[in-house]
Give the backbone structure.
Amino acid sequence: MKLALIALGLFVGLQQPLPEINQKIVDYTLSQEGKQIDRGECWDLAAVALDKAGAAWQSPYEFGTKYNYKKDTILPGDVIQFENVEFKGELYRVTMPHHTAIVVEVQGPLKLKIAHQNFAGKRTVQLTELNFNDVKKGQLQFFHPKAK
């Protein structure tokens, strides 16, 4: 798997810029940290970020081009849909029965920082680091955003 770390707008090792639509999604999302987007639902953050970036998507959960996150390159600005997912690491356990989030940073192979809201009792945008190697059950769908 290709390692995609974002540094100064470039992927280290790939030496190519982040697609413009992804960069717009990341920029908007990070600018909203600590704020409530729309009703504060997890889905609202993705919907508004995609709209602000000019992305083509369809309600309810078609956020772009679906891909296999274990085989393909994960990019900041991609959207994740969680269905009955449980993460369990040495020091943590996180469950996401039905949840939507945005990748804001790729920290290593399947180690991501995501932005989401309506998580852990908070309806504001928050950042969480997760190791996707710790997925014990459930279904994850990853989407690369597409321009209109």
In short: Helices lie at 20-31, 42-53.
